[in-house]
Amino acid sequence: MINDIKKTLWATADKLRSNMDAAEYKHLVLGLIFVKFISDTFTARRDELARRFADPKDEFFLGQTPDLAMIEAELEDRDYFRAVNAFWVPESARWEVIRAAAKQPDIGKQIDAALTALEVENPKLKGILDKRYGRASLPDGKLGELVDLVSTIGFGADAAQAKDILGQVYEYFLGMFASAEGKRGGQFYTPASIVQTLVGVLNPHQGKVYDPCCGSGGMFVQSEKFIEAHGGKINDVSIYGQESNPTTWRLAAMNLAIRGIEFNLGREPADSFTRDQHTDLRADFVMANPPFNISDWWHGSLEGDPRWVYGTPPQGNANYAWLQHMLYHLKPGGRAGIVLANGSMSSSQSGEGEIRAAMVEADVVEVMVALPGQLFFNTQIPACLWFLTKGKQQRKGEVLFIDARKLGTNVSRVQIELTEDEITRIAQTVADWRGEPLDKGGVVNEYTDIPGFCRSVSLKEIAEHGHVLTPGRYVGAEEVEDDDEAFADKMQALTEKLGEQMAKGAELDALIRQKLGGLGYEF
């Protein structure tokens, strides 16, 4: 049912955008969905309180018979809403007011005013809401139609159910916009199966979780789902992030706010290299999908930066800057998972080989995973997962290599995704190698190398390969099932079969000639 709703909403919303670029339009759509949700949540809470206050049996008024004025006055107390993590929505920003004005020519300005009123009442939303509706370049009437469309999303009175519906709709729209935007879409959206793999391997049940290029916050959302699915509480982790793109930074803040997740995304959008807003943070878990191979990241102020423990990254490529930035922000015993282009595993340009060698020899590289192609909306560049650690507790002096290039299932003509079973297989393999249970209270399985899929390799062997970290170089070829039939026997059987087929062919040829001869044909 929810999948049908999502598809219908997307088809209608995409049709309404006319010639507007998806990169701009997504903020209009997602912003309205956000406002609709917090308005519905507010209304549901207000209706619940109104029923309670009007019930003479309720203990709230201590036996008094409240009149309408008493109830209305009590309903203005913001604390009743904050107690359940509901935003206070002033009358001008309530959805019924916005919808009533949908056909008016100044509906864009009215929505902007409503967003301003929401920020005034809710300091948490300051700077998050993107007030661009008054200047949106949509044809006349299209914004009003979009308001009507969003009005069809019913979040209901149940807070948990409402949050779940919104989360699914929001995540679906983010993915669809990423697909519509193509290359640019990847700047704010990482496919869910990749995030789930990172989260599954890192196992972030408690502590500080950090993403220095958080996009729309997908890493944090998947962490929440993982924690809840494994019996934990999202309040057991603290969320820290940073994002340089202002509109994407707002998307991340909204994505977390709608789920009631407490977060710290820094004071404002900013570059993690030149304006690190979490300089003192030492996280238990770091996970990120930084932009691949960016060449315009360097600034003179980064020369001699304390983050470059293993060598100064080349100015023309930020891959090894990201790896070292994340290691710098890890606490002892912490773990990081990073998505990078495959070239990062073997490049020797501009000193990258020396940096990688220093990282390997320092034993901070824990696991390397080669991913299948076509996982991303925005690029066909093959990608891999780096898992790093500080103060390795298990398997010292070894690195686990996993070749997952043959995994994945087609979800469209141009894209595949890892299945839940495949993600679990990767995560379970890493847990077995570490000597840990995959889930709390679970069993510890014995790790075994699987030719063609995974292998634990010593640092000495990696050094012999020039510190190249490509899994395919180490895991070997997949074992072919041996049926104990000797090659000579197989060859003899095949030869006999071929002889039989040739003889049969000759018989058929003679029969055809005979039949055609009877019809007067000569050969």
β-strand percent reads 5-15%
Tell me about the largest β-sheet.
9 strands, mixed
State the secondary-structure class: alpha/beta
The third-level CATH topology of the largest domain is Rossmann fold
Distance between the termini: 70 Å
Name the helix and strand elements from N-terminus to C-terminus, one letter apiece.
HHHHHHHHHEHEHEEHEHEEEEEHEHH
* Count of alpha and pi helical runs: 16
| Tally of structural domains | 3
Shape: globular
Low-confidence stretches: 183-188, 481-485
CA-based gyration radius: 30 Å
Provide tags for this entry.
single chain; 523 residues; alpha/beta; Ferritin; Rossmann fold; 16 helices; 11 strands; 42% helix
Task: Provide a descriptive summary of the structure in words.
This protein is of the alpha/beta class and 523 residues long. It folds into three domains: 179 residues, N6 adenine-specific DNA methyltransferase, N-terminal domain (Ferritin, Up-down Bundle), CATH 1.20.1260; 215 residues, Rossmann fold (3-Layer(aba) Sandwich); 38 residues. It contains 16 helices and eleven strands. Strands 3-2-1-4-5-7-6-8-11 form a nine-stranded mixed beta sheet, sandwiched between helices. A two-stranded antiparallel ribbon has the order 9-10. Helix 9 packs parallel to helix 14.
